[in-house]
Each structure stands twice: as C-alpha cells, then as structure tokens.
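Q: I have 506 residues here and want to know how they pack in 3D. Can you give me a structure?
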Amino acid sequence: MTIPEASARPRSPRDPQPTGGRRPPGRAWPLAAVAVAFVLAQLALAVPGTGLGWDEAVYVSQVGGNAPPAYFSAPRARGISYLVAPVAAFTASTGVIRLYLVLLSGAALLGVLWLWRPVLPVRVLAVAGALFAGLWVTLFYGPRVMPNLWCAFGALAAVGCFLRAVAPPGRDRRPVAGLGAAVACVTLLRPADGLWLALPLLAAALLVPAWRRRPGPPAATAAGLVLGAVPWVVEAYTSYGGLAARLHRAGEIQGTLGWYFALDDHVRALAGRTLCRPCDVPWEHPWTALWWFLLPLAVVGGLVAAVRAGRGTAAVLATVTAASLAFPYLFTIGYAAPRFLLPVYALLALPVAECVLAVVGAVRPARRPLVAGLLAAGFLAHLAVQYAVLDRAVGYSRSVRVQFTGIAAALGALGVRPPCTVTGREYVPIGYYTGCSSRQPRGHDGSITEAGLAELARHRPLAVVVHAGKAPPGYAADWPVTRLPSAPGSSGFDAYVSPSARPGAG
C-alpha cells in the first residue's frame, strides 16, 4: 500500500511535508468563526421548542433526568449518557441539556479543526468545517443526546492525530495519546464505529513502509479500541448473558445484519426522516439529495487537488477511513438514518474543501472573484435546502414535545404520578415525560411479563397506552379508558389506567 504524494512540480520550502507534520500553524480565527456560527445556528434553528425523543429519553434516564432508567437494549452503548451526566445528574431541564450540548459541540468542532492545523492549511480546515457544520443533520444532532455527531468529532480527531503521530521527526508523544483517546471515545460511544475507524488506521500503520517503524500509532489505536470496548463487553456479561448473546441480540434488534444495498434508503432519508425503517417510502423532494450525488465527484476532485498540492496523504487517509465507516451502514443494515453517516461526512469534508479551493485557485486571478462568487451562491443555495430540511425535522420534534407534554399532564390528572409505570405504545418517551418507569413485556424490552404488569398495577399507578380505538391487554380490559392529547395528523392514543391511580391526589 502506498499513499500518493506525487507532485508535478518541484517542492519548495513553503510546501507542506507529506503528512503535514511540520506545517506552521496558521491563524485560527477562521476556525473560531466557523465554530461560533455553528453554535449560533443551533441556538436559533435546532433548539427552540424541542423535546427529548425516544432514544434521548433512554440515554438521559440512565444518569438522572426526569424518570427512572429506561430499558437499555443490547446495541446501545453508554458513552453519550456519560457525556450528558454532568448536567443531567443535576437537572431534568431539556433546555439546559440542549444548551450544554450546543456549547460542547461548538467547542468540539473548534478543537478537532485546531488539532489539524499542523497537517492542513487553515483555509482548507475552515471550508471543511463550514461544509460539515452546514448540513442539516449536523445542526439537528448538535444539541441532541445522540452519539453519532460525537463519533464524527472523534473520527476526525483520530485521523488528525494519526497523521501527526506518523509525521517526522516523531518525537512528540501527544498525538499518539490523542489518537488512543479519540479511538477509545468513539468506541465508548458506538463500539461498531470504533472498530470500523480503527481498521483503516491499523492497516495504514502496518502497510505503509514509512510508518512501520513507528509502533506508537498502531499500539495507541489498538489500545483505544480495547479500552473503549471494555464497558460494553463487561456489561454484556453482567446484563445480557455474555458477549456472544449480546452481539446476537443486538443483531436481531438492528434487523438481522447481512448484505443489503441501503444507498437508496439513505437518499430517501435525506428529506428529513431521522429514521427510515422500513424505508419502503416514496422518494420525496429529490432536490434534498443533490449534494449527496455531487459528493463523490467532489471527493475525487479533492483527492487529485490534494495530491498535486503535496497534501495527498491527509486526503487519502481521510477518504479511506470514511469509506470504512460508511461500509456497514450502506451495505450491512437494511434501513437508514442520516445520523449514521455523520462521521463519514466529517472526514469527506476535507477532500471536498480541497476541491473547492482548487477550483478557485485554478482560474485566472482576474476571474477568481467571479468563480468565488458563483461557488458562494451555490453554497448559499445548498444552505437554503439544508435549512428547509432542518426546519421540517425540528418542526416534527416540536410537535412531539407538545404531544408528550400534553399526555404527561393528562396522565398526571388521572393519578399516574411517580412512582408509576407506563407500558404500551411510545412507552419510553411517555414514561419519561410523566416521570414513570417504562416497562414492556415484548419487543426490544421484554423485561417483564403481562402477569408481572398486572401484579405491579395492584401497588402503583400503571398506564397502558394503545392506539386510539384499539383494545388493551386482557388484564387492563376493565380499567377506565381516556383519550390522550394528540399531535396534528396523529391518530392519537388511549390510556387504560389502573384503579391504583388516584385522580386529583398529590
């Protein structure tokens, strides 16, 4: 394996080294400007009026929040719960949690771009940061209690630290430590992502002749992968019957892993579907995926431009790592969620930025303002599309918050107050908003039987939530039924409340 670094012209003293290890850091204000814009855009567009969704309620409830811990299914990892624990342990305020994550994500974006400064010019990093931060999926998940964006930051940090660690003279041990920490963090957040991140880095360290003499990077990568996976593996034996049993159950919950062609699913999800499962829906608003089809062309152009500029190592390694991270989501899982590919987009933003800057630099100086203006206009049009999709996704999140807040108030008026339990449809978010535990006798949970729920109802309030007009389980057939508040366009829910609940009490 050889990393291309050929250049058509002699290298001058101002040219970067092959891995960028000796590049003098440039002025950082463009990176800070991108991070500040990212924070402000989240605060204005992605935060107001939103509430916690199903997955967020699961993660927050593990470390505090508004309700007892929800069932933690086999595929999940606790890294994101650890990330929000400093806030969630002290407050159940969704607004405070959102603000904390907004500020933290802005700092993380600045931090990962900053550590790349010895590798790539600041102008490349600033353009890459703007491209990544401008995606609706990046803005949407910045303030949310979900692990994927943090995996993206970790992947970008890992590749940057790797390149700095293998660069001559190689006396600085900080990049090696940073590499191990980044891989460990990604693995702690999503073990599978940690594996697919580590594989190309280990391969590069072992196959590129100039890097074989440096044991630090592969050792740090492997150590980070192992350390990050330890909590998940230990929990497999303490709570899931062993590692093999947890892996098997995780595969079942994720839809039985195998060979799938999910590219079309991801294209359809770009219209604003946060989860497309099953993704047998019409392809709505094809214009929302235009950038996705242009992405491979821009990456190829960026690779060519980077090689010619003497920065091919960084562009190639980022692209190869992105391909590794994309592979399981595009070809082994039969559904799609835009957040899955956030680490891919973060890494591919680097060669795309190289392409954009190369296009501007290739024209005559007199025409550069015109070309730059055309590219800026195209980027603004792209941002307008991203804003439209973001507005749709955030609007749905707001309607869900209104519905679940109304449901929680209605159940509270019926006497469903802590200590209480919710089961049935949407039992996790309804339980969280109500302050109740959430239990289910089937599906991903299966942590209790119907007989167990019936016994539980003798001692504490229990709400069985079903689709409006549907019959409840047999043990709740004689309980009072109430129609719950619904969101516009929703069929709504009915709640069968156990006699142990005391309306108006408390």
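Q: Anything worth noting?
A: The chain has two domains: 29-362, 395-497. Confidence is low (pLDDT under 50) at residues 1-21.
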